[in-house]
Predict the 3D structure of the following.
Amino acid sequence: MKVDFNSFVRRQTADSSFTHWVISDLEILNRVDANFHKAKPGYKDGVILVSIDPEGFFSSVKLLKEGDKLTGEFKARIAGEEPRKSIQTKGDKLPAKSVDVVIYSKAVLAENNEHSTVADWEIVSINASPEVDGTPIIPETLIANHFGLSGGSATNMTPEQFEKALKISVLYWKDKAMVC
């Protein structure tokens, strides 16, 4: 079983509004390898989440306080996708208390020709959270996934499951923003 980095994860840098890390790719792969046997199922078959030691990772979630300035953008995440709205704030990225590495199988990546390597599995996202129990998916991302919008990945949720997940997402993110 070989795991490698998908090119999509490379958007996650210290200057981005995403999780970033200050450890080597090799260290990440070693942590994934050591915990692969404890992988949790993702949103569909062929997608897994591997929890790893959060040391060296930074989350970009910030708790907002009254008066914080917000900025917005309308842009595509990657070439070929339709643009999306996003809201950010300025501030320091918080050290992670938990990290989930999102890994797609070769078969899932082949569905939309999204593979970057010949590996059996590819890391497509690294999600660090300032919460020990993780951070709910951002409402707009959940919606794009559920309704199959450009760049979204099908959730296969029932309407009831989607409504429950959306409620959790909205309640968590109502007073938080990603750091830009």
Observations:
- The mean pLDDT is 93.
- The chain has four helices and twelve strands.
